[in-house]
From TrEMBL:
Superkingdom assignment: Bacteria
Function: Hydrolyzes RNA 2',3'-cyclic phosphodiester to an RNA 2'-phosphomonoester.
EC number: 3.1.4.58
Active site positions: 37 (proton donor), 120 (proton acceptor)
KW Hydrolase (keyword) present: yes
Sequence similarity: Belongs to the 2H phosphoesterase superfamily. ThpR family.
Residue positions of motif HXTX 2: 120-123
Motif range (HXTX 1): 37-40
Protein name: RNA 2',3'-cyclic phosphodiesterase
UniProtKB keywords: Hydrolase, Ligase
Record keyword Ligase present: yes
Reactions catalysed, as given in the entry: a 3'-end 2',3'-cyclophospho-ribonucleotide-RNA + H2O = a 3'-end 2'-phospho-ribonucleotide-RNA + H(+)
Amino acid sequence: MPRLFLGLELPEHQCQQLLALQEPIVSLRWQTAAQLHLTVRFIGAVQELQVDELTSALAALDAPAFSLQLGGVGYFGSPQRPSILWAGVVAPAPLQALREQVDELIAPWCAAEPQRFVPHVTLARCGPGSAPLQGFLQRRRGLLSVPWQVKELCLFNSDPGSGGSRYSVLARYPLEG
């Protein structure tokens, strides 16, 4: 059963900048270049038939292209038990608007997510016994990428594996210039 999400691919320059942040920190599993993306909406496991329905529904997407910039770092979880180390987004309003339109289009297949949307790019997953992240957060708090133009939204399949998930693009939805 496919496990789907909608997201943005990152340009090569931004990927390289994020990969350069990696440090040897106990129990962190850093993302590879192929794993770096920005999730707009997690959908989850769906039946094969639903993939075609979702793809068709998303063809109605009518959102403008927009400029996006990564900035700052943070984590999810508690300071004692972080789960995800991430890079944030500067001025996420256009991304939020895209998310809201996507939610409307896929509402028949996906329940609304109760948590608020925190746009981010996962840098690393934190395992049990992760070293404290405060030093990393201090050193990297000034992260600021070059802005880029977001011109498409992608429907991804996530295939879990021992080295982390592998992502493949099932469909691309252009954003109007």
